Amino acid sequence: MPADVWPQPVLDLLATGGDRPVFEDGPVVTTASEMAGLIRRVAAGLRSCGAGPGVGVTLDLPVTAAAFAATMAAFAVGARVSGWRADLSPAQLSGSLIVDSARLASFAEHPDDGLPLVAAGRAEDPARITWTSGSTGTPKGVVQTYAAMSAAWVPYPDRWPPAIAELATRMRRYLVFGSLASQVMLEYGVLALAAGGTLVVAPRPVFPDALVDHQATASVITVGKLHQLIRDQRANPVDLRHLGALMVSGSPLAPGRLAEALDVLGPVLFHGYGQTETSMIAMVTPAEMLTNPATLATVGRPAVDVSIRDGEIYVRTPTQASSYWQDPDESAEVFVDGWVRTRDLGELDADGYLRLLGRARDVIIVNAQLVHAGPVERALAADATVGEAYVVGCPDEMTGEAVHAFVVPVAGRTPDPDVLRTLVAAQVNDLAVPRTVTVLDRVPLAPSGKPDKRRLAQLRDGP
């Protein structure tokens, strides 16, 4: 196979890395050469169980050095790799070989022949199935082929977009947690390795404790956890001078909240935009936001082809997914003539920066008219008493659906529901005015770390 078939660049990097530390799990440090040998042994174990091109391998593993080796080994043998989810059906698992910690331990005992490991993936075969959070009802399996993964710029420093090149300088100690089946977690991990950094395990990813305990220089953080970190730093600040980068993931930040984060945490925020179906689309750096405050309202200049069609963002990139696993109808709706419909609304400004305007499908139907959640949330968040704002639609006997708002106040402030309703009426329209406004100490988060709008709908007060 060609030398650049995924994950060959990672295999080569580790095979030539010698004693360089690449993975740190408490007191246990794994060097590049040790990781390369572990990958070879696990690959042998996988092959002994029949894993290879076209065969599904599902990884049910915590974040460990062995789990990283298993991930790379499963790709190396050309398997269809996915992460375990308890809510997946037998059909979705499709008879995959399940690799848990016990089976992985047996694989690690296989002899190491010491020969270079050559990636065996076939270009058009599915390489990875990444399961979405299921926030719309049923998890969708996002399929990325070996051809797509092989086209990625992540392991190649000479291909990095400018924002990623700046980010890479701050990846000396990248905090990993949750699951390596997470597309974001793994891809930033490969970026850290390509930049000469070390992956550092956080068994308890509580911020800021994990950042301090592991002296992390970089980490991924969701918007919800970022808001909590900012509140904690204001109330009980800790020393985060070692921190170089927090990559904000999951949902866009309002400009005011982003400016606050930069003020409290320093020039460490990299505000990115991407989807499981596309990987990274754009990213704005701390330097850009501090130099040009107008970029606070954007997610940066796109690093991929972007087309705005009737206000909706379409994306095209060689690394994009090709379909949803066993879901031809949804695939046909999203993957259109070589483009991916993001179902996000946006616009490009005169300088080429991408501004997000809301979700095309995050809508509430009031009196048969669409109310987009994004503009309502931005209007609410513009009030000085509001730290976070979210809206959901709930059934209503009179209007079909009604808008219900949930706000987290700024410390020491008390939002006035009537003032907030007036603000929405003025900035959006009367249809968008929330029927109820509920004040919360903290927004509930889904397992993905994103605001859990299903739970918010269950929490709404009043009919």
TrEMBL record:
Keywords: Ligase. This is Acyl-CoA synthetase (AMP-forming)/AMP-acid ligase II. One of its GO terms (molecular function) is acid-thiol ligase activity. It comes from the Bacteria. Gene3D superfamilies: 3.30.300.30, N-terminal domain of ligase-like (3.40.50.12780). Residues 117-325 form the AMP-dependent synthetase/ligase domain. It holds the Pfam family AMP-binding. Residues 376-450 form the AMP-binding enzyme C-terminal domain. Transmembrane segments: none annotated.
